[in-house]
Prior knowledge:
The protein has 297 residues and is an alpha/beta fold. The chain folds into 3 domains: 3-83, Orthogonal Bundle (Arc Repressor Mutant, subunit A), CATH 1.10.10; 91-160 and 266-294, Periplasmic binding protein-like II (D-Maltodextrin-Binding Protein, domain 2); 162-263, D-Maltodextrin-Binding Protein, domain 2. The chain has helices spanning 3-15, 18-25, 29-43, 59-83, 99-116, 168-174, 180-183, 224-232, 242-245, 279-294, and strands at residues 48-51, 54-57, 91-97, 120-126, 140-143, 152-160, 162-166, 189-191, 219-221, 238-241, 252-254, 265-272. Helix 2 packs across helix 3.
Amino acid sequence: MDWDKLRIFHAVADAGSFTHAGHELxxxxxxxxxxxxxxxxxxxxxxxxxxxxxxxxxxxxxxxYRTAHDVFNKLASAKxxxxxxxxxxxxxxxxxxxxxxxxxxxxxxxxxxxxxxxxINVQLLLxxxxxxxxxxxxxxxxxxxxxxxxxxxxxxxxxxxNHVYASPEYLKAYGTPKTPEDLDHHKILTFGxxxxxxxxxxxxxTYGRPADNPRKPxxxxxxxxxxxxxxxxxxxxxxLPDYVVGRASDVVxxxxxPEPEIPEFDTYFVYPEELKSSKRxxxxxxxxxxxxxxxSF
Length: 297
């Protein structure tokens, strides 16, 4: 089987179209289409169903894709080990975490790491869904929960605490809530819809209320920075994580009675077993473990 055709097939299956795969490969759409047609001719089976909205793998295509994907993952792993056989850590390192944690805690600390290790090319992948490390969607992750996969190495960094905040302008206009009953007459801002592992993050909706009769938020935002900005601008009251608020003076922390059980999220540095000897991963881990010790509010 022609290796170059297999590489192009893998790219097309990932992209879902000849055009998008061509952009990734630096080839024209017609060149990609010809290579796929030639591969299908050699194998004497169709690999894709072609329709107006894109390409779908046939049953035979799925079989070939799974095999090719496994081969490319093993090659990427071998490349990592070869690169790490040198004394000085270098090469690509893809790091994933949530948008909020990545924007407010990780990104401000990256500059120092890049200065210390200029030969490591860091790529931050900030998404609120968890990328699959075993499928090499990323190399390492910082996650807001303990990982459940048995083949992942984990190191706890810190615990994320949440508190209730409002802007001084909002409190001046609507008063300061002190009890659950008070909150019933205030504007509540919430996050979401949250992923399953953050399902308790919107506890303000049910604090002091029956679970089947929650407060209705006036605004829900699927980005924690947007939630902070809405709070800062006086749109309402929100539960925000410490790493977003930091030492900002433009929002006020509120105290409620009875004291609510506010959810906390343990944060872990996570990477696959196959990268346990990677110098890039180890220096990145050690750097951010040290930064986690320094960080507290």
